[in-house]
Every structure is written in C-alpha cells, then in structure tokens.
From TrEMBL:
Similarity comment: Belongs to the amidase family.
Keyword Hydrolase on entry: yes
Record keywords, A-Z: Hydrolase
SUPFAM superfamilies assigned: Amidase signature (AS) enzymes
Organism ancestry: Eukaryota, Metazoa, Chordata, Craniata, Vertebrata
Gene Ontology MF, one: fatty acid amide hydrolase activity
InterPro entries tied to this protein: Amidase_CS (IPR020556), Amidase_dom (IPR023631), AS_sf (IPR036928), Endocannabinoid_amidase (IPR052096)
Domain spans labelled Amidase: 6-212
Signal peptide: none
Name of the protein in its database record: VDHAP protein
Gene3D superfamilies referenced in this protein's UniProt entry, alphabetically: Amidase signature (AS) domain (3.90.1300.10)
Annotated source species: Baryphthengus martii (Rufous motmot)
Gene Ontology biological process terms from the UniProt entry: fatty acid catabolic process
C-alpha cells in the first residue's frame, strides 16, 4: 500500500512482483527463519525476477520475460526476504537522472522539482518516500551512491565480485570498472544486515566465482 502511494506521487515503481503472498505463506511453514525473514525488499529494474521483464529502460527488452530469478533474488528469498516491486531506472542506466521512454520520469520525494539521482533512482525515491525499507540497486560509477546522496539515504557499493552479478541484464556495455549490486536503506545497520544475509553459503554455492568470505562484523564496528 505504501509503495503504491509513493509511486503515485513520484513514479518510482515499474512492476509489482506477483507471488508475494504465496511466498510469505511458504516462509511461515519453514523451520529455519532467515536473517531477512518477512522483510519486503524492492529490486532495481535490471535484476532478473522469474516471470518479469528486465527492461533496462529500453523497448527492445519489453517482450522478454525472465525464466528464472537472479542469484541475488534466490539468496534474498532463502534468507526470508520478500522481493515485492521492481523500480525505475534511466534508459541504459548510464545516467545520473532517472527517466526513460517506457516508464517516464521519477521524481525526488523530498522535492518534486529535483531528480532522485541515478541510475538506482527508483530505489532511492521509493525508500526515501517510505514505500520500502530495504532495496537492491547497482553501482558502476555512482549508481547507488548518487541516489542515496540525493534522497538522504545510506547505500553501499560492495567490493568488486563480492556479490554475484549473475542473471542481471546489465551486460549492455563492457565496462572497465566492475559493476556491483548492493543495498540501499535509511540506516547503516540495515545495509550491514543485508550484506550479512547475502554473504552466505548459498551465495557461494550458487556462484563459485564469489570469494567465500562471510561479512565481517568487526570491520563495520571499527
């Protein structure tokens, strides 16, 4: 409900992920409660979710339904999180604003005259507007850090190859800098919890190229 209200105001959500209710019922029956149990999580447009399009803000990708969840979505679900919406981005994602010809312009919820930043601008706007408490963006040259700054949030670009980028439709360009998926939230504790949840055995098993190093709590507290 909150996400719907926010997107009516600033146009940040592009798709609602079906099956949320079913997933919640399934979670309730599980004995193991993951670190993110019951937390609804918003997901940037290009991160693949089964049965949904990853448009990259481009018309050419609109007919291509994804057949499986990306590794990060699989791990989030196994940790009890509930991916519930996909959020807007600028066309091709190489932009510090957040607009494309399919879904239009996303506004900054703090000031509708301003941009929420990019390319994870839909995430920034939704979280800052109160429609999500934790989201996954991606960052090559500021795409998590800029919207976090513009929208008054916390965001983290992890070290290269720390989280599996597998099954994300961001292979539009060959880049010299490693693009990384990472969390966005209103406080640092939420980022730390998300990283701790993601850096688990399942992540390392699903993508053997990810170094099997768990999250270091002590580094964060120093």
């Amino acid at each position: 409900g909150e996400a719907l209200e926010v997107t009516r105001e600033v146009n940040c959500v592009i798709d609602f992920i079906h099956g949320c209710e079913d997933q919640l019922q399934k979670l309730k029956k599980q004995k193991e409660k993951g670190l993110l149990y019951g937390i609804p999580i918003s997901i940037k447009d290009h991160i693949n979710c089964k049965g949904h399009v990853s448009s990259g803000g481009m018309v050419k990708f609109l007919g291509q339904m994804k057949k499986e969840d990306s590794i990060i979505v699989q791990v989030l679900k196994s940790q009890g999180a509930i991916p519930f919406v996909k959020t807007n981005i600028p066309q091709t994602m190489i932009n510090y604003d957040c607009s494309n010809l399919i879904f239009g312009q996303t506004l900054n919820p703090l000031n509708h005259q301003k941009s929420p930043g990019g390319s994870s601008g839909g995430e920034g706007a939704l979280i800052a507007g109160g429609g999500s408490i934790l989201g996954i963006g991606s960052d090559v040259a500021g795409s998590i850090r800029l919207p976090s700054s513009f929208c008054g949030l916390c965001g983290l670009k992890p070290t290269g190859d720390r989280i599996s980028p597998s099954a994300c439709s961001d292979r539009i360009f060959v880049l010299a800098v490693t693009g990384m998926l990472g969390p966005m939230a209103r406080d640092v504790d939420s980022l730390a919890l998300c990283m701790k949840a993601l850096l688990c055995e399942e992540m390392f098993w699903l993508d053997p190229t990810v170094p099997p190093i768990p999250f270091d709590e002590e580094v964060r507290l120093r």
